[in-house]
């Protein structure tokens, strides 16, 4: 993993390349957290060249968010790669971060990723601090990002518990009608536990298995959750994402995304409709 950290005025830009896994997380945390002080307003974390991020890496991102919150700074993830986007989505972490992509992300990158602004580099060799003071540049780079209206949703308060794998599993939506009885072959009900609890537990375990790369077991857990609740949209959505991890499962991925599209259309969930249509288009084009 390579890390380049740039600072200009009140902005910190952390460019990460490679795999963000347990072996490197302490190095990343030590390099970045200490630089987030009262003088920083914006912290940009570029994930466009990150191939994979595990639960420890997600914990570091949440830790950066917590440190930034304490200093009244804002954390923005820049152009997460497809694999990282999938993990953020399955982990429900995309909802606590601002994410910038497209032309605005490119403009920000061109503005801040400049050799003269580099203050720290960490790679295979020992970390080297190349500049100790921020470079002053003309014009506030905050203008690159759209301002949030005063009525926007208040910032999410993070606690150490929110960094645990179980705390970021998909939430279970309320249902107007009682859930149908488990289908044949579904996990047996446990006395004193609701259908909601069973599905929640299966989805939490599936999220962690996916982070560990155990896709077969993750598939099993999502299928078990679907057997209990055949209309639970998040389980189908996450199952489709897991199926995309293996070329041999592509037909299953298409079938599952079609189910996501069907369910989301039945409840008018435009976000899931758009996502399903996008994935289906990509999968069918690549055949």
Write the layout of secondary structure elements.
Layout: E1 2-8, E2 11-20, H1 22-33, E3 42-53, H2 55-70, E4 74-78, H3 82-90, E5 98-100, H4 102-112, E6 118-122, E7 128-129, H5 195-211, H6 215-228, H7 233-243, H8 250-267, H9 270-285
Parallel strand pairs: 2-3, 3-4, 4-5
Antiparallel strand pairs: 1-2, 1-6, 6-7
Helix pairs in contact: 1-2, 5-6, 6-7, 7-8, 8-9
Summarize the structure.
This protein has 287 residues and is of the alpha/beta class. Helices cover 43% and strands 15% of the residues. The chain has helices at 22-33, 55-70, 82-90, 102-112, 195-211, 215-228, 233-243, 250-267, 270-285, and strands at residues 2-8, 11-20, 42-53, 74-78, 98-100, 118-122, 128-129.
Task: Describe what this molecule looks like in 3D.
There is one protein chain. The chain has 287 residues and is of the alpha/beta class. The protein has two domains: 2-122, Transcription Regulator spoIIAA (2-Layer Sandwich); 195-285, Serine Threonine Protein Phosphatase 5, Tetratricopeptide repeat. Helix content is 43%, strand content 15%. The protein contains nine helices and seven strands; from the N terminus they run E-E-H-E-H-E-H-E-H-E-E-H-H-H-H-H. It has helices at residues 22-33, 55-70, 82-90, 102-112, 195-211, 215-228, 233-243, 250-267, 270-285, and strands spanning 2-8, 11-20, 42-53, 74-78, 98-100, 118-122, 128-129. Strands 5-4-3-2-1-6-7 form a seven-stranded mixed beta sheet. Helix 1 (22-33) packs parallel to helix 2 and helix 6 runs antiparallel to helix 7. Mean pLDDT is 77; it is low at 125-133, 135-144 and 146-186.
């Amino acid at each position: 993993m390579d890390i380049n950290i740039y600072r200009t005025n009140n902005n910190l830009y952390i460019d990460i390349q490679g795999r963000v896994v347990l072996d490197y997380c302490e190095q990343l945390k030590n390099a970045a957290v200490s630089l987030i002080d009262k003088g920083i307003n914006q912290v940009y974390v570029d994930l466009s060249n990150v191939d994979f991020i595990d639960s420890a890496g997600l914990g570091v991102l949440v830790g950066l968010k917590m440190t930034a919150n304490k200093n009244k700074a804002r954390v923005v993830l820049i152009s997460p790669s497809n694999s990282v986007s999938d993990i953020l989505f399955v982990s429900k972490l995309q909802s606590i971060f601002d994410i910038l992509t497209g032309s605005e992300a490119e403009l920000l990158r061109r503005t801040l990723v400049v050799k003269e602004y580099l203050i720290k580099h960490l790679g295979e060799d020992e970390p080297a601090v190349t500049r100790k003071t921020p470079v002053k540049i003309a014009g506030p780079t905050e203008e690159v990002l759209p301002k949030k209206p005063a009525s926007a949703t208040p910032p999410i308060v993070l606690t150490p518990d929110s960094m645990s794998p179980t705390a970021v599993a998909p939430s279970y939506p309320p249902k107007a009608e009682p859930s149908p009885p488990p289908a044949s072959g579904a996990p047996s009900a446990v006395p004193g536990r609701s259908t909601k609890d069973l599905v929640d537990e299966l989805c939490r375990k599936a999220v962690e298995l996916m982070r560990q790369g155990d896709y077969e077991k993750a598939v099993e857990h999502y299928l078990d959750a679907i057997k209990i609740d055949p209309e639970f949209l998040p389980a189908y959505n996450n199952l489709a994402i897991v199926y995309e991890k293996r070329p041999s499962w592509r037909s299953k991925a298409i079938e599952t995304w079609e189910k996501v599209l069907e369910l989301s259309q039945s409840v008018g969930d435009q976000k899931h409709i758009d996502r399903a249509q996008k994935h289906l288009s990509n999968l069918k084009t690549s055949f």
